[in-house]
Design a protein that fits this description.
Largest sheet: 8 strands, mixed
Radius of gyration: 52 Å
Shape: rod-shaped
Structural class: alpha/beta
């Protein structure tokens, strides 16, 4: 896809994009606005276990950071929360999360609740209970260790006393033991006493350190930053969620639009015509501002449009006949009228080397605007001074007599059963345009239209009409509905296929081409009818410039 094609998709599906954006964003806004707001309060704690020893070292800092992770799990444990609920008289209704602060000795305890004051009080109470429980646990552990150390110190003191008493007795007693032996025993006991004294000193220092640690057990974890009530809820984030939902809705709608464009194989543009049937597009005609479904339904007056250009139901034309529905907007400044003049020009270029005096206009299905297009084309051809005859050969559902405001009582069917089909004087009916005459369908409508249109008499009627006009235009039934169009194509020089833009799928248009490309006249090209052009007709200008340039350089 090119950029302008994406822009075209946006213009065609802007309502779906707007619906997705508004529906998703509005739903998210309503849901978030009706949701109970949640407030968060955070209390920050600090682990300072290194103060439990006299001379902290680097390993103590590492230990603190490891304790942060441990305490982060313990602070959420049931013993802590149960104590908090008991002290505050709560039964739950709040959420607790803990987040260690990287590369520090800090961690935060966050409480979420619908009451901001309650959230702050719970966060502070959790910190208080945890600090108290941690201090009690540490004191209990230290007390047990100190008790064991005291036993060791007492035992060591007994051994020191025993060794000292033995050394003194050896120095004072005279029990007949040789002096050398007594001296050796004294030396051995003196060495053991020295060792006992060293161990005793170490145990005493350890006991003193534990005593200091026990006194500072409550300082191992402390409240660094108490929590405060927050007046801004953290959930729901109304604007952020609404914008996110709107973007998601817009994205989904855009994806759906692109999918539908991908699956849509209807013929809407000249490029679609070229891909579907490989035929040139002679004209692109927009929706008439005064018409509905290709047929005018009410009065439409514009300055510069004369009578005979716009006829309304119930009005009288100069010849006294009742006017039909509007047929042509011939205002020189009208893009709608210009579209038919460009169709006329492109048709003349296409038949430059093969004159086309008889032209049949058909469509794949009904209600695609073929009769409306034929009438407009006939008027613009007549404006050039050419003698034009319009034949309503759709004898199943004739409509041209209403378009031009003529009687349908005496026409083609009557001429086909006449003795002399060359006597056209009483059958051709004039219009407001001097060079334009109409051969209506006639009455009554035949029970066998296909056989009648394929008869030799039809060939003689066509030959007589060619003698009376410079170009004869035939309005035929839809090509895929009945066989009339294929039969009638054998009597004309060329066929023009009308395609209602955006209505028929490519397969339908291709099937119509097969039907109209039989042994009869060649299918010259396509007219896109009821095309909705973006940017005020820019597509028309772009297309006609390139199309006219192509035929001016390489006429066919």
């Amino acid at each position: 896809m090119e950029l302008r094609q994406y822009w075209g998709v946006i213009r065609r599906w802007y309502w779906l994009l707007a619906l997705g954006l508004i529906l998703a964003g509005g739903t998210s806004f309503a849901v978030n606005r009706s949701t109970t707001p949640i407030y968060a309060a955070t209390a920050t704690l600090m682990v300072n276990q290194s103060q439990s020893v006299a001379n902290p070292v680097y390993t103590d800092v590492i230990l603190n950071q490891q304790l942060v992770k441990t305490y982060s799990e313990l602070i959420k444990s049931p013993p802590v929360l149960d104590e908090v609920n008991e002290q505050l008289g709560l039964g739950g209704g709040y959420q607790v999360s803990v987040s260690p602060i990287r590369d520090t000795q800090l961690f935060g305890v966050t409480v979420r609740s619908s009451n901001p004051d309650q959230a702050a009080a719970i966060a502070n109470k959790i910190a208080e209970v945890f600090i108290a429980q941690t201090g009690q646990n540490q004191k209990g552990q230290i007390a047990a260790i100190r008790q064991d150390l005291r036993k060791q110190i007492s035992s060591m003191q007994d051994q020191i006393d025993t060794a000292s008493a033995r050394i003194i007795s050896l120095a004072t007693e005279n029990d007949g033991v040789p002096r050398e032996v007594r001296a050796a025993e004294q030396a051995r006991l003196q060495g053991m006493l020295s060792q006992y004294q060293v161990v005793f000193a170490q145990l005493s220092r350890s006991e003193q350190d534990l005593a200091l640690a026990e006194s500072r057990a409550d300082e191992g974890v402390r409240l660094a930053i108490p929590s405060r009530p927050s007046r801004s809820p953290v959930e729901p984030r109304v604007m952020a969620n609404t914008l996110l939902a709107a973007v998601i809705g817009l994205t989904l709608a855009a994806g759906l639009a692109l999918l539908m464009e991908y699956l849509d194989d209807t013929v809407k543009t000249a490029e679609d015509v070229d891909h579907a049937v490989a035929l040139p597009t002679f004209g692109i005609v927009g929706v008439a501002p005064f018409s509905q479904n290709g047929v005018a339904v009410g009065p439409h007056r514009k300055r510069g449009i004369g009578l005979g250009v716009l006829l309304r139901r119930g009005e009288r034309s100069p010849n006294g006949k009742a006017g039909g529905t509007s047929i042509v907007a011939a205002d020189p400044k009208s893009a709608f009228g210009e579209a038919y003049r460009m169709l006329r020009t492109n048709l003349q270029f296409a038949t430059l080397n093969r004159p086309c005096k008889t032209l049949m206009v058909s469509s794949a299905g009904p209600a695609e605007g073929k009769s409306f297009t034929l009438a407009n084309l006939a008027v613009v051809l007549a404006h050039t001074g050419q003698r034009v005859i319009v034949v309503d050969s759709d004898v199943r559902r004739p409509s041209l007599h209403r378009v031009f405001g003529v009687s349908a009582e005496n026409g083609l069917t009557n001429l086909l059963i006449a003795d002399d089909p060359r006597d056209l004087g009483s059958y051709l009916q004039p219009t407001e345009h001097v060079a334009l005459r109409v051969l209506p369908s006639g009455r009554p409508l035949p029970p066998n239209p296909t056989e009648l249109l394929g008869s030799p008499q039809m060939g003689r009627v066509v030959a007589a009409l060619k003698e009376e006009a410079d170009i004869v235009l035939f309005d035929s039934p839809p090509a895929l509905s009945v066989a009339d169009a294929a039969i009638l194509s054998a009597h004309v020089d060329g066929v023009l296929l009308i395609v209602d833009a955006g209505r028929n799928r490519s397969q339908v248009v291709a099937r119509a081409k097969e039907v109209l490309s039989g042994p009869g006249a060649p299918l010259l090209g396509v007219v896109l009818n009821r095309f909705k052009a973006p940017h005020d007709g820019y597509y028309y200008q772009y297309y006609y410039y390139n199309y006219g340039y192509k035929y001016s350089r390489r006429p066919e």
